[in-house]
Each structure stands twice: as C-alpha cells, then as structure tokens.
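Encode chain A's predicted structure.
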Amino acid sequence: LDSNLLAQRAALDLIIIHFQMNHPVIANETYCSLCAIALGLLLKRDFSLNRRLNTWLLGNDTDNGSVYFVNFSKSIVISALKILFNVNAKDGPAAVKPFRI
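Encoded structure for chain A:
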C-alpha cells in the first residue's frame, strides 16, 4: 500500500464507492485480502482513514451499522484477521502486526 496519506484516503474512498460489502463485485477471497490490508491502516491512527474504514465495514447508514456489519462484513473481517494471524513467526515485525491492531 502506498505510504502517502492522500493516496490511502483516495484508495479507501474508491473501495467505499465501488466495493461495498452488500453488493459483492469481486470474489470473497479478494474481499478478505483487501480487508486485511485495510485493517493494517488502523495502525496509522489517522482519524480520516479510520472513518473511511468504518464507513466501508459498517455501511453508509450509521443507524444500522451493527446490522450491516453482522450481515455483510463480519465474516470477511474474521477471515481477514485469520489471514493476518497466519503470518510466519520468523518475519519479526510482520508477526507482531496483528496484535497491534
């Protein structure tokens, strides 16, 4: 992922608009990989990135965010976290990353 904050924001905006969880347009495995990368952005502790990630995972409607998450995002987030935890322990910093999220 690009280290430029503006590029990361633009990428998340693109994901929010074109890859909504409730209208799958790509394979489930691809959603899981995309979600794993996006969850890594939480480590940046940037409010705008976190807000965009929440919008993608909880949907645009803030009133039914938990319902949207359970129905569409939960299984993908769980699979993404499993991907992050399956990192080889010899990778050093990469092995600790899921615990920091």
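Residues 1 and 7 are 9 Å apart (CA to CA).
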